[in-house]
Write a structure and sequence with these properties.
The protein has 10 helices and 8 strands. The protein is of the alpha/beta class. It has a single domain, classed as Alpha/Beta hydrolase fold, catalytic domain (Rossmann fold). The protein starts with a helix and ends with a helix.
Length: about 300
């Protein structure tokens, strides 16, 4: 049964437009401004502080800016490479350092977040190339792949999946484990949940179309490195897929889980009733998010 707190918090998120005096939810259409959207998120993020017990350290890897989040309690020498979300058009170290700090504590690992190039200025495959470059830089530093876990949410989760496929394609070592929370797996965006859950989810309406088009930039949506649903996961690392039943990507994430197991891959499917897009990032606001964060931590430590 859904907790009362999650019902309240998610309800506020769905209706956040009312708090700013708007009658309709924000929609990604011809009036949408990428720069205004980024600025709004950045201004909100500047007010957020790291949780207790986590410090940070700036780093540059292959010319890409990053930041280590260092939890006081670390149970191993493992590394979490976290790829942030933001619909491929937004997100940064600034917007996600607080969230990655929570993952760092849950996984009890030194964790890295980095600034990859964003669309529409830098469409596919720029973000994937940057993710691959940072992963390779960790290997160049002497960090063994079996000590690396990669994870992400939303667009970052899509890039996690694309990175696994790119590593396989290049015959490069896979990380020890990977987790993907609420990934966009098919840029066709035609699954039933895009219609069924559009009003239930908290994502900006139609963002999956407009923002996806910014990143895709005319590229074939059937390319597995763009739409991971079409990839071959045989031989890839154990993967945790996490989704809420009320999010627009639900059907495609379930389809990916089934496809991976049909291929003989190693995937776990974590389904959370009535939860929405990227809900674990809302921990500790409600118990489902806290439990989901704990599940990710336990999976990553194995």
């Amino acid at each position: 049964m859904q907790s009362l707190r999650s019902r309240m918090i998610i309800g506020l998120m769905r209706n956040r437009h009312l708090l700013s005096g708007k009658r309709e939810r924000e929609r990604a259409d011809g009036n949408f401004s990428v720069s205004e959207f980024r600025g709004r998120i950045d201004r909100a993020s500047e007010k957020m502080k790291l949780p207790r017990g986590v410090t940070s350290e700036k780093v540059t890897l292959n010319g890409i800016q990053g930041e280590w989040l260092l939890p006081e309690k670390r149970e191993s020498e493992g590394i979490l490479l976290y790829i942030h979300g933001g619909g491929f058009i937004s997100g940064s170290i600034l917007t996600h350092r607080m969230h990655v700090a929570k993952f760092a504590r849950a996984c009890a690992m030194k964790s890295l977040v980095f600034d990859y190039r964003l669309a529409p200025e830098h469409p596919f495959p720029a973000a994937l190339e940057d993710s691959l470059s940072v992963y390779e830089s960790l290997l160049d530093l002497g960090i063994a792949p079996e000590k690396i876990v990669i994870g992400g949410e939303s667009a970052g989760a899509t890039l996690v999946l694309s990175l696994l496929l790119a590593l396989k394609e290049k015959d490069r070592p896979q990380p020890r484990r990977a987790f993907a929370v609420s990934p966009l797996t098919d840029f066709h965006c035609t699954a039933g949940s895009f219609t069924r859950n559009a009003r239930k989810d908290i994502a900006v309406l139609d963002s999956w179309h407009l923002w996806g088009d910014y990143y895709r930039n005319g590229h074939n949506p059937a390319d597995p490195l763009l739409s991971p649903l079409f990839g071959d996961y045989s031989g890839t690392t154990p993967l945790l897929l996490m989704t809420g039943t009320d999010e627009v990507h639900y059907d495609d994430i379930l389809s990916l889980y089934r496809r991976i197991n049909e291929q003989g891959g190693q995937a776990s499917f974590s389904e959370w009733p009535r939860m929405v897009h990227a809900f674990p990032l809302m921990a500790p606001l409600f118990p489902e998010a806290v439990r989901a964060m704990g599940e990710i931590g336990s999976f990553s430590k194995c």
